[in-house]
Design a protein that fits this description.
- This protein has 531 residues and is mainly β.
- The chain is built from two helices and 39 strands.
- The strands form four sheets. It has a 15-stranded parallel beta sheet that branches.
- Strand 1 (45-48), helix 2 (68-72) and strand 2 (81-85) form a beta-alpha-beta unit.
- The chain is elongated, with a radius of gyration of 24 Å.
């Protein structure tokens, strides 16, 4: 799929670069023969080679440590580094006792030439554990833990327990795979990468976190998960007035990671403020969990921005959607994302006994997502705005475009969107109250369309909806959706493709001029799907 890099991330704009390629390039950035750069602070670089011949061990390059237990027993000086030899394999848990400081982070990485060094957790609960430390960076490692399948375990766990504010964490270039954990989540759940705040005595949070360019493959249950015991406020159903108060982690970035074959959720953000989740690729989730899981979503978090992500291959309808705005969230924005081929659908907006408000779903693309486009849960929420999205429902797929599960108050506007159904199967709306406001949408071949002032049922003339994404969902010259939308306050200046948003805007996610060239013949809608 082609998409520009976001201006907000500070990256150089690269219109036409593939999002998937961006994620893969980030995940493979460290060269296979490179040595992790580490400052030698008064000789405090500890070398580890678990395949070294017996002999004197001092932690030097010529006399490396041969086991992780030896490293774990060291009282490392501030800013020390631990480097594992490329091509070697260590079994057990690496849990270093040390920390870094500004300008002198503790680095855990690789040296020598060859493949990334392997840490095999050997069935232990932890593989790489970074507890009550800060100014730490882990990079260029392969991490696995398939032993004792079905038991609670993690690939990388960064944990703060009654610590206060921990600062500066970097996880980059890690290949995490076959973490065969149990079906739990939360601060003690099984995950590929888990950031967990635990304890209740001292207010604790993370600050300045970047998880970037990693691969997370074949993991049960969670891919990348942030959780905290300091999460109590009366906006979610798990609120405990006697528990630790709400203290969100800050300056969190999850960028350019590739996730595949996950038992449960992909990327979950909880108890944070202003987290950025961008340029991640997830293919295959909710594959083995008995619980309810989605691709990428926040819970009990504020001002989370998800952009330029791609999610596919969600299984089951529990929940199985690509994206979710969940309970206790405020100011969440999903923009410039792609969803396709998910059994559970495109989007969930869900609160049970709590609240959520001020959510925006804009300039996203959904193709051939099954079951439901946007589904709501039973609770109430305010000011959810879905505008300028393009939803294509192809051959053999049946979808409820908006599915309300309740008659409780739901304040939703659905504006300037394009929804197209082609081929067999049906597309319908299931609206149970008058709180969903539709206007200026193109609803083509939808059965029993709801009221849609300023809208259209005409073919929007998509360029090639079964072709490459997102280019196949642009608009052809002469499309009735061109400049047919209505201005939406607070809209971004550009669309997913890098085009400026006009006034009036187009309907749908594409805001450029009509694309010249022959129109791909539109498939005939199933007779049962006619309005």
């Amino acid at each position: 799929m082609t998409t520009p890099l976001p201006r907000s991330s500070g990256a150089v704009r690269a219109a036409g670069a593939a999002l998937v390629a961006v994620a893969l390039a980030a995940s493979t950035a460290p060269a296979a023969s490179a040595t992790t750069t580490a400052r030698d602070n008064s000789g405090q670089v500890q070398y580890v080679d678990c395949g070294a011949a017996s002999g004197t061990e001092s932690g030097s390059r010529n006399q490396p440590w041969r086991t992780l237990d030896q490293v774990n027993r060291l009282n490392l000086k501030t800013g020390s580094s631990i480097l594992l030899k490329r091509g070697s394999r260590c079994t057990g848990t690496l849990a270093p006792q040390g920390t870094g400081q500004p300008g002198k982070p503790m680095v855990i990485g690789a040296y020598g030439r060859g493949a990334k060094p392997v840490i095999d957790g050997g069935g232990n609960p932890e593989t790489l554990l970074l507890k009550n430390t800060q100014w730490v960076e882990a990079k260029d490692l392969e991490i696995t833990n398939s032993g004792n399948p079905g038991r609670n375990k993690r690939g990388v766990r960064v944990q703060l327990q009654d610590f206060g504010t921990g600062t500066h964490y970097r996880l980059t270039g890690l290949d995490i795979h076959d973490i065969r954990g149990d079906d739990t989540k939360g601060t003690e759940g099984s995950a590929g990468i888990l950031f967990s705040v635990t304890g209740s005595k001292k207010p604790t949070k993370f600050d300045d976190v970047e998880v970037s360019g990693n691969t997370v493959t074949t993991v049960d249950r969670e891919g990348i998960y942030f959780a905290s015991t300091w999460n109590n406020r009366p906006v979610h159903g798990d609120y405990d007035p006697d528990g630790p108060a709400y203290l969100p982690s800050t300056r969190v970035v999850v960028r350019g990671n590739t996730l595949k074959d996950l038992g449960g959720d992909g990327i979950v953000i909880t108890a944070t403020d202003k987290t950025l989740v961008e340029h991640n690729r997830l293919d295959g989730f909710q594959r083995r969990s008995a619980g309810y899981n989605a691709g990428m979503w926040p819970w009990n978090a504020d001002n989370t921005l998800f952009q330029y992500n791609e999610v596919s291959g969600g299984e089951t309808t529990r929940d199985g959607m690509a994206y979710d705005i969940d309970e206790g969230t405020f100011g969440t924005v999903f923009q410039y994302n792609v969803s396709h081929d998910n059994a559970g659908g495109f989007f969930l907006v869900c609160t049970a006994t709590g609240r959520l408000a001020d959510a925006v779903i804009r300039y996203n693309i959904s193709r051939n997502d099954h079951y439901r486009g946007i589904e709501t849960c039973s609770g109430s929420f305010d000011r959810v705005r879905a505008h300028n999205n393009t939803i294509y429902i192809g051959e053999g797929i049946t979808q409820t475009v908006i599915n309300e599960n309740t008659t409780n108050k739901h304040d939703i506007t659905f504006t300037n969107n394009i929804v197209v159904k082609e081929g067999t199967g049906t597309a319908t709306f299931n609206l149970k109250n008058n709180a969903v406001t539709l206007a200026h949408n193109t609803l083509a071949n939808i059965r029993s369309t709801p009221g849609n002032p300023g809208g259209s049922t005409a073919d929007p003339r998509l360029t090639d909806p079964t072709g490459a994404l997102p280019d196949g969902l642009r608009l052809r010259s002469g499309s009735p959706a061109l400049r047919a939308g209505t201005p939406v306050p607070g809209s971004p200046r550009r669309d997913l493709y890098g085009n400026p948003v006009g006034n009036p805007p187009n309907m749908g996610a594409y805001q450029g001029r009509g694309v010249a060239g022959p129109l791909r013949p539109t498939a005939t809608a199933d007779a049962d799907n006619a309005s």
